[in-house]
Amino acid sequence: MNITPLEIRQKEFEKAFRGYDKDEVSAFLNSLSIEWERLYDQNKELKYKLEASENEVKKLREVENSLFKTLKTAEDTGANMVEQATKTAELHMKETEMRADALMSEAKSRARSIIEDAENKSRVIIDDMEDEIRQLEQVFRSMNASKDSLMSDLKLLAEDILNKIGRHQDFPSDIKPHLKKAKDLGREVNDNTSQPVDVESILVENEHKAAEQSINEMVDETAHEVTTEPIEETAPEEMVEAVIEEPKEESIPEVVEETIEVNEEPEAEIEETPPSEEVTAATESSEEEKQESSFFDKFE
Length: 300
Fold this sequence. Notes:
Blueprint: H1 5-10, H2 22-167, H3 175-192, H4 199-226, H5 234-249, H6 252-262, H7 267-272, H8 275-288
């Protein structure tokens, strides 16, 4: 029940016998109204302060809730960021490890491939070198065999020619008179002709040509027999060519060979030969004396 101070002051009581003192009751009511008014104002003021305090508390609670939410959000965000950073770091670490492993595997594979290629190439080179060395050894042995065979054939050829020369070195001792007659005949021919004729040189030239042809045929035939087998080396071929070509330059062996063919007749026939044949025989006999310096002496 709400009673205001004004209601207390205006309150009227009924009169009764032997009731309370009116002035005393009025004074009490007046003091009571004053006190009630004071309490009422105080209560009103306290209500206002309470309401203001509640509003302030409400605001503070809202701020507290906002701060709590903010802190919660910050905490959650920080936790998420930490978790995300941790996951990112772990992912980067795994990717780095995978890349490092891939690089190491690739490097090892390339190193093995390079080593295998180098080993294969070295084996191929070594095999090629060994094959080449074996081929060179075979060629060298074949060249030595061919050289020995060729040298043996050349020695046999030289010995055969020297034997033929040796068989005809012992000419009749009376060849000098025939040579003298031939020279006298040549001087007579020169005296009887308007132009001097060198009979000896002409005969010697003809005999030289015939001897050259004969010995070339014999040397070519012997060289053909020697070179029937293939010769790979160069030095023996050059030696054969030198041996074949050298008799063409030397006149002494040619004359000796021709002398062998011409002077196989008996001594009696030499005396019956015409002057031209005597001059030829004398010339060939003089040339035989020079054969001791023949190139075949080096094979002995």
